[in-house]
Amino acid sequence: MLLTRRRDRGSWWSETVHEWALAEAIVKYVGEIVRSRGGSRVKSLVVKLGALQSIDREVLEFALREASKIENIDIEELRFEVEQPLLRCRRCGYEWKLDMDSVPQDLAEAIHFVPEVVHSFFKCPRCGSRDFAVVRGRGLSVERVEVV
Ligand SMILES: [Zn+2]
Fold first, then answer.
1. What whole-number distance in Å separates Cα of residue 3 and Cα of residue 53?
2. What is the pTM of this model?
3. Distance in Å, CA 85 to ligand 1 centroid
4. 13, 32, 74, 94: which could form a disulfide with 126 (CB 3.0–4.6 Å)?
């Protein structure tokens, strides 16, 4: 699943800076792993992206490629995995998964752009409360680094 963002609704510049800062942090982290394992290059890098985040995957991928060139780290395969959100009701404690693939496209886009809108559109399936916490599906993490 790849969500595209409408560029005309926000500040492209600040978002792009956000992705670049993330890319630099990831590449620095990966570089440390490569050095600590005494390897020469990265065979594969898997980055997990929460479905409830506002990171542009295409911009991030481009920034990662560029940052790895600057840091002189050869990344052969770069993959992204999307983490489906897990929500927990603050009133009754019920936990449920949000299947982003079943969410209408325009709503998915809105969530991608402003993740906080999930609270306006979803409620606890057990008690109906809109007061829930996002347990998983936010942010970004380096899932796997294969060094050779
Ligand atoms: Zn509940």
1. 11
2. 0.76
3. 16
4. 94
